[in-house]
Structure formats: structure tokens, C-alpha cells
Design a protein that fits this description.
By secondary structure, the chain is of the alpha/beta class. It has a domain of 147 residues: HAD superfamily/HAD-like (Rossmann fold, 3-Layer(aba) Sandwich), CATH 3.40.50. 40% of the residues lie in helices and 14% in strands. It is built from ten helices and six strands, in the order E-H-H-H-H-H-E-H-E-H-E-H-E-H-E-H. It has a six-stranded parallel beta sheet with strand order 3-2-1-4-5-6, sandwiched between helices. Strand 2, helix 6 and strand 3 form a beta-alpha-beta unit. It is globular and about 45 Å long. The C terminus is likely disordered.
Length: 223
């Protein structure tokens, strides 16, 4: 039996930071993005308003700055190794994030089978933002269902990894979940809780909750 591993990006694959924060650093707008992040975390604004604010904030953004933000981000160790192991096991991995798709999709280079983010205009921005393309927490579940159909699995064969309440709906939709460096509110509803900087360790927890294909306890493959 195969499986689908669903990863959040901000605060999950990235330790203590988020794609919008790293992008804003490249523009010298760290203080400004922290204000927007605070409003979002306090639920004063939702995903569409957040996206509108950062789209306006990043008016001068260039592709080179996006790449620099990606390359310099505080990624967890072992991401590419985990995704290679998933591939070798005949399983699938995907990233679903509320962050801009132009950043999220760079993770395809590291071996993700699919990557979804909020749809922003191409960088540099010459077009307005269409908020219809901005993802919501519930949209993560819809995308997961689409991926299940694409890869020939069911929700029962999914493992979700996340860090905040934007992942709660997805955690509720699948049988196995791993809260990675997560807020207490999400950790309470997760199957497993991981604190640290190595995705290989979080992945091992995710695998420990998966059903075996051969009976007995899960096979130890050194993960």
C-alpha cells in the first residue's frame, strides 16, 4: 500500500520563519512584514487580506530576490533525503501552503511530487492580485483530495505535517498527523508532536503511525 505525505511550508519545513518573512528580508521590510504577520496570527485579517497586503508590500520584488530568500531560508535538515526516501518507497509527497506559489513551487526542485501555494502574479509584479487564487485552510483539504485522486490513494493513506491552526482542518481529515515545532493548539489535535530541526525525525514519527503492508509492527528501515 502506498501513501501520500502532505507538508506545510511555513514553520514546518522552515524553522521559526515563513516564506513571506524571508522574502521581505530581501527587500529590507522585516518590520513591515512582522506587523502583517501579527495581524494574521491574531485573526484580525484573513488569507485574502494578508495576500493583498504582501502583494502591495512586495511591489519591487525581483526573481533574484525570491531565489535569494529561498536559498537563505532556515530549512529543516534532511528535507531532500526524506523526499528521496518517500520516492524510493513508492510513495508520494506534496507541499500545500498558503504562501505564494512562486516560492512554494521551488520545492519541486528538491523532489516534491507536487507543490501548491496561493496564486500570485508572476514576479516582478505587473498584474494585480486575484484573491480568488489565495488558499485558505479548508482549501488544503480540497487540494489533498485532488492529490489523492491523482496519486491513487485515499485520505486513509495520508500523513499530514504542519505547525499552526491553518493546518487543523487537514489534520482532522487524515488519520495520521505530525505537529512540527507547532503551536500548542495544533499539537493538541496531532497524532504526534515533534520539536527540532531535522525533518527525518518528524518523518519517522509520521511513519510510525502508518498501517503496515505486511502485518505486525512497522518495519524499521533506519528512518
Amino acid at each position: 500500500m502506498t501513501a501520500l505525505h502532505l507538508f506545510d511550508l511555513d514553520g514546518t519545513l522552515m524553522y521559526g520563519s515563513a516564506a513571506p518573512v524571508e522574502i521581505s528580508k530581501q527587500l529590507g521590510l522585516s518590520a513591515e512584514i512582522q506587523g502583517v504577520e501579527r495581524e494574521f496570527s491574531e485573526r484580525l485579517i484573513g488569507p485574502p487580506e494578508y495576500a493583498e497586503r504582501v502583494h502591495e508590500l512586495w511591489a519591487g520584488l525581483t526573481p533574484a530576490q525570491v531565489r535569494a530568500a529561498f536559498d537563505g531560508a532556515p530549512w529543516l535538515a534532511g528535507i531532500r533525503e526524506v523526499w528521496r526516501q518517500i520516492e524510493e518507497a513508492g510513495e508520494f509527497c506534496a507541499v500545500i501552503s498558503l504562501s505564494p506559489s512562486f516560492f512554494v513551487e521551488l520545492l519541486l526542485e528538491w523532489g516534491a511530487h507536487a507543490a501548491y501555494g496561493s496564486r500570485f502574479p508572476a514576479v516582478p509584479f505587473t498584474q494585480p492580485l486575484d484573491v480568488a487564487g489565495v488558499l485558505t485552510p479548508q482549501a488544503k483539504v480540497s487540494i489533498a483530495d485532488q492529490l489523492c485522486e491523482r496519486f491513487g490513494v485515499t485520505r486513509a493513506q495520508c500523513v499530514a505535517y504542519g505547525d499552526s491552526m491553518t493546518d487543523a482542518a487537514l489534520f482532522a481529515a487524515v488519520p495520521t498527523s505530525v505537529a512540527v515545532n507547532a503551536k500548542v493548539t495544533l499539537a493538541r489535535v496531532a497524532t504526534h508532536v515533534y520539536e527540532g530541526r531535522d525533518l527525518r525525525e518528524a518523518y519517522a514519527l509520521g511513519r510510525s503511525g502508518m498501517p503496515c503492508t505486511h502485518g505486525g509492527v512497522p518495519e524499521n528501515k533506519g528512518w
